[in-house]
Design goal:
elongated; mainly alpha; Arc Repressor Mutant, subunit A; single chain; two-stranded antiparallel sheet; about 325 residues
């Protein structure tokens, strides 16, 4: 009689049996490996996780919003900084959740007068004031064993949206219609005719070191006399005021008014001068002579007092009384 060994291992199951093969006998689906949570968890209903009308972005965004503490910012800008989907997809997902009752957004005015958006997250649309245990209900998609599946609870109709934040408008640059263009062109033409064109500024001229009033009057006189040599060099009083410091700079460098006049009027172009003041300003700056060399001041000649000659009694200049130069040679 054979003896049985209770500690011996059972023979391995055959791979050919249908009940042991994962792809035979049962459908190849997900296998849950659940670990119970004691802290840091959020209860999400299957009506949200398995919603047939919501997109995957909307379901994930609703789950994220329900896991946040009260007072956390859930506006489009804050969510776009948190997730890589971008503002367009996040805005569309928020509108989906609002349409199915998982979000309520309203515009409120603060005591300071500022408009803010109040957002309310609903973990079970259609229920207000319910707790976690009272609002949870099993879904028809949950696989809980071999027993009969519970009858799915009808989904409540979506609530009417109270307020909806309008999507950001894009500024599109559209070409004006031909009729509008016709009405705008005469207006611009009338504005151009009414407002005179601004003339370009004259070139800069050299600035003198000591612009005394006498030198400025002499410089203006030089500029006014230019038209006597060439009528094309007629300038206005404003242009003369602008050019006068440049002429004073020439006068400070030991130039006479006549020499400045010749420098400004010689070798003029034969064509008409549209802006003679601009030509004069260019010549005053481009043909500016260098500073004269420094010359130390000479000592003034010593003048002796008049003396009377002791011999001829004539007057002569000398340091001491005596005889003049002629009497001194004769003696």
């Amino acid at each position: 009689m054979d003896s049985q060994n209770p500690s011996a291992q059972a023979p391995a199951a055959s791979r050919d049996e249908a009940k042991n093969h994962p792809s035979r006998g049962t459908s190849a689906g997900v296998v849950h490996e659940n670990t119970p949570h004691s802290t840091h968890f959020t209860v999400v209903g299957n009506h949200l996780a398995q919603h047939e009308a919501l997109s995957l972005t909307a379901i994930g965004l609703a789950t994220h919003i329900q896991s946040l503490p009260a007072g956390s910012p859930v506006d489009i800008r804050s969510l776009a900084r948190r997730f890589p989907e971008g503002r367009t997809r996040i805005s569309a997902a928020l509108r989906e959740l609002e349409a199915h009752g998982y979000l309520r957004r309203s515009k409120d005015r603060t005591p300071a007068g500022r408009m803010v958006t109040r957002t309310v997250s609903c973990n079970r649309p259609g229920r207000t004031g319910g707790g976690l245990g009272r609002t949870s209900a099993p879904s028809s998609r949950t696989g809980g064993g071999d027993g009969p599946r519970p009858r799915p609870e009808p989904e409540p109709p979506p609530r009417r949206r109270e307020t909806q934040e309008p999507p950001p408008r894009r500024r599109e640059t559209q070409a004006p219609s031909p009729r509008r263009r016709e009405t705008q062109e005469p207006t611009s033409r009338r504005r151009e005719q009414r407002e005179p064109r601004r003339r370009a500024a004259l070139p800069a001229v050299p600035q003198p070191a000591y612009p005394t009033p006498d030198l400025l009057r002499t410089a203006v006189g030089v500029l006014c006399d230019l038209r006597r040599t060439d009528p094309r060099l007629l300038i206005s009083a404003t242009d003369a005021e602008h050019l006068a410091p440049g002429v004073v700079t020439w006068l400070e460098r030991d130039f006479t008014p006549e020499s400045v006049h010749r420098a400004l009027t010689t070798t003029l172009p034969p064509e008409p001068l549209h802006r003679p003041a601009a030509l004069l300003a260019h010549r005053l700056a481009a043909q500016l002579p260098p500073l004269p060399p420094f010359r130390p001041p000479r000592d003034p000649a010593t003048r002796h007092p008049l003396q009377n000659c002791d011999i001829c009694d004539r007057a002569y200049r000398g340091p001491e009384p005596g005889t003049c130069a002629g009497c001194a040679r004769s003696t």
